[in-house]
Amino acid sequence: AQSVTQLDSHVSVSEGTPVLLRCNYSSSYSPSLFWYVQHPNKGLQLLLKYTSAATLVKGINGFEAEFKKSETSFHLTKPSAHMSDAAEYFCVVSLTGGGNKLTFGTGTQLKVEL
Amino acid sequence: GAVVSQHPSRVICKSGTSVKIECRSLDFQATTMFWYRQFPKQSLMLMATSNEGSKATYEQGVEKDKFLINHASLTLSTLTVTSAHPEDSSFYICSAREGFLRGSYNEQFFGPGTRLTVL
Predict the structure, then answer these.
(1) B82-118 pLDDT, tens digit each
(2) Do A100 and B111 touch (CB under 8 A)?
(3) What are the backbone dihedrals phi and psi of residue A84, each rounded to the nearest 5 degrees, phi first?
(4) b vs e for A13-30, b when ≥16 Cβ sit within 10 Å of the residue's Cβ?
(5) Among residues A11, A31, A12, which one has the least CA distance to residue A92?
(6) What's the rounded Cα separation, in Å, for the pair B35 and B48?
């Protein structure tokens, strides 16, 4: 069985300050982990993915995430938030070779204030 | 990047009627398509997985006779909500995966979703 827990349902930051969105996972086997972003009335967009290569993963729009097996975490960070980053973010786990079935976290709504 | 479209983007129907939602991969061939459901302020829940030319595999708790999935070509999958009721109102999202598994993962590309409201 696999699952993800997003620890914060809402995060609010000021523009220009760092962003941290937390995610912990549970998986019996080697997982693949992803972060997706969903803007209102838009499809989900892949930000970055971890598939057992480098533990520090760089994604689009300045986001990155670090896979920490000892902490079963895959937190998403960005050094400086931009207004356009305001959206819903989903942490997602997939079993390697498991047919690509994705299990989504409950999502974190990121609000960026001036 | 790969583009997936959904049609319609929004539909309102009366209780008891059937609604068909289309999912198309515009610039690649999708051997596998997935259908998700998202309730307001909640996460995406996988409903079913469909492979081109074969029957869909439904997740536990999803009624296959109510949510009919057809994946007749490599670029089109349809979800038909039969005899829709207000509790079927939701945001339905499809995704498509190109080709067969290479390495550990082939990315799923998501459509923009269809908002279904059943009166």
Answers:
(1) 999 999 999 999 999 886 554 445 678 899 999 999 9
(2) no
(3) -70, -10
(4) beeeeebebbbbbebeee
(5) A31
(6) 5
Alpha helical stretches, state H, chain B: none
Band of residue B28 on the pLDDT scale cut at 50, 70, 90: confident
- pLDDT for B53-84, tens place per residue? 888 999 999 999 999 999 888 899 999 999 99
> Closest Cα of chain B to A100: distance in Å?
7
> CA of A53: which chain B residue's CA is closest?
B104
Closest CB to A44 among B49, B105, B110: B110
How many other β-carbons are positioned within 10 Å of the β-carbon of residue B73? 13
The span from the CA of B52 to the CA of B78, in Å, is 11
What distance in Å separates the CA atoms of residue B83 and residue A32, rounded to the nearest whole number? 38
Q: What is the largest CA-CA distance in chain B?
A: 46
